[in-house]
Automatic annotation (TrEMBL):
It is an enzyme of class 2 (transferase). GO terms for molecular function: trans-aconitate 2-methyltransferase activity. Residues 45-139 form the Methyltransferase domain. GO terms for biological process: methylation. The keyword Calcium does not apply. Its EC number is 2.1.1.144. This is Trans-aconitate 2-methyltransferase. Keywords: Methyltransferase, Transferase.
Amino acid sequence: MAEEPNRWEDVYQSKAEAETSWFEVRPQVSLDLIAATGATSNAAIVDVGAGASRLVDCLLEMGFHRITVLDLSETALAKARARLPDDAPVEWVVSNVLDWHPAGRFDVWHDRAAFHFLTDAADQEAYLQVMDRALVPEGHAIIGTFAPDGPEKCSGLPVARYDAAHLAERLGPDYRLIQSLMHDHHTPWGSVQRFHFGLFKKN
């Protein structure tokens, strides 16, 4: 995956925030699933593959103050950071999640953008090992991916597509599926992409 940082840097350097297919003014599905975890304002939350997502803005508005935002693209994180106060309680991490060694542990792991780009079984396993080390016992993982009838590619890259059963099988017996939903994401230019979101609890 060595080429990925440059690819995503190019995307975020060449496109405005609302010119990307994944742009959401308000990531309501993610916010609803985070609420479903029962997380209090003191919960530690990480957004993996966040890009310039507005999830961090919304979490801050809701009173969360232990937020980590991770992405391969420094440009993407700079765009998100520029929207927020300088003293916002956010840790910004430029890293490939597969190589990441978080300093602390998290109550909620959120990913709407990274996991489905991992089409190699070894990369998927490496991701899940990072996630497992990062999550506290009984922590929650929210993973959004393209659904089985969603796009086969994104930004020219092949993706892995999941439904509830496939994603639960991939996460394995240490994670219990709490909630599953399909979501039609409307891109800024009006096309529809079918996503699947799974909310899991670590045993």
